[in-house]
Amino acid sequence: MRKRILITGGAGFIGSHLCEKLLNEGNEVICVDNFFTGTKDNIKHLLGNPYFEVIRHDICFPLYVEVDEIYNLACPASPVHYQKDPVQTIKVSVIGSINMLGLAKRLKVKILQASTSEVYGDPEVHPQKEEYWGNVNPIGPRACYDEGKRCAETLFFDYYRQHNLPIRVVRIFNTYGPRMHPNDGRVVSNFIVQALKNEPITVYGDGSQTRSFCYVNDLVDGMIKMMNNSDNFTGPVNLGNPEEYRIIDLAEKIIDLSNSKSKIIFKPLPQDDPKRRRPDITLAKEKLNWEPKVPVEEGLKRTIEYFERLLKEGKIR
Ligand code: NAD
Ligand code: UDP
Ligand code: UDP
Fold this sequence. Notes:
two-stranded parallel sheet; 13 strands; Rossmann fold; 9 helices; binds nicotinamide-adenine-dinucleotide; alpha/beta; seven-stranded parallel β-sheet; single chain; binds uridine-5'-diphosphate
C-alpha cells in the first residue's frame, strides 16, 4: 500500500537518501526542510517524481499536513554546523520535536527520531550498548547537540507513555557517503576533499581517537526496518558499523584509496572530542535482522568518486 511519508530534514545528507529509497519503494514523500545545512542539489533528481513534494519550513514552527508516517531528521549534524548557531540547534531538537510529536499525536501515526551516538557523550563503556546512559558535559560546546538530542529522546518516550504514541528511536553512529556536505568539517568529507586536492590531511590530536563508519545506504535500510518493525519495538536501537578505526588509520586509508600525494599534519583536538566510539549492534541484529553490508573500503571508494565529480564540476572551492 502506498503511504504518504513526511521526512523532516529530507534535503540533508541522510534525509535525501531516505527520500529516494522510500520513493523507490512506491511511497509518496513530503520533504520538509529549511535548507539550513541541506541543499536543493541533494534532491533535485527527485523533483520530477509526481509523488515527491518539498516544503520549505522550519520545524520550530507548527506544521499542519496529513501523513501516514514521520521520520524526524531535521537538525544540523556536524560539529562545525551545529556549533555555528547553538541556540537554533537545541531549539530544533526540543521545540522541533515537540511540534512533530504534536503532529504525530493529532494524526495518530508512527514517528521515528534520528537520535545519535552523541547521547553517549565521551563514553566510559566500550563498545556502547543501548542501556548505557552516557557521559555528557551539559555545558560544553557539544551540549547544544548532545543534550538537545537527549531531551528529544525524553520527549519521544514521554509522548509514548503519556499519549500512547507509536514511536521509534534510532541512535545513529558516524555515517558517510555521497551527498555529505563538503564543508561541514566531518572527518570523512574533510579527508577526502583534502586528499583529492593533494592538500595536507588535518588529523586532530594524535589521531588515536576512534570512530566507526557506516555507509549511508546501510543506515537508511536500518531506519526503514526500524520504522516497519511489527512488534512495536520502540528502541532506542544503535545503528552503525561496528568496525572501529583510529582516525590516523582512516587518513592513511583515504590517501591510499585516492592515490593522493597529501601528507598528514596534526592540529589541536577540539574540546570534548570523544576518545572512542563503536556501536554494539546486537539489539539491531536481534530485533531488526539488520547489520551493515557495505565494507568500508567500498563505501569510501563510492564517496571518493562523488567528491571527484563535485571537484570536476567546480562545486567545491
Ligand atoms: P544534514 O545537516 O545533512 O541534514 C539535516 C537536515 O535538516 C538539513 O537538510 C537541514 O537543512 C535540515 N534542518 C536543520 N534544521 C531544520 C529546521 N529547523 N527545520 C527544518 N529542517 C531543518 O545532516 P545528516 O548527516 O543528514 O543528519 C540527519 C540526521 O541524522 C540529524 O538529525 C542528525 O542529528 C542525525 N545523525 C547523523 C549522523 C551522521 O553521521 N551523519 C550521526 C548521528 C545522527
Ligand atoms: N502541532 C503541529 N501540528 C499538528 C499538531 C500539533 O505542529 O498537527 C504542534 C502544536 O503547535 C503544539 C505541539 O505540536 O505546540 C505539541 O502538540 P500537543 O498536542 O502535544 O500539545 P498542545 O497543543 O496540547 O500544547
Ligand atoms: N577529525 C579530524 N580531522 C578533521 C575532522 C575531524 O581528525 O579534519 C576527527 C575529530 O576530532 C573526531 C573524528 O575525526 O575525533 C570524527 O569527527 P567528526 O566531526 O566527523 O564527527 P564526531 O566527532 O561528531 O564523531
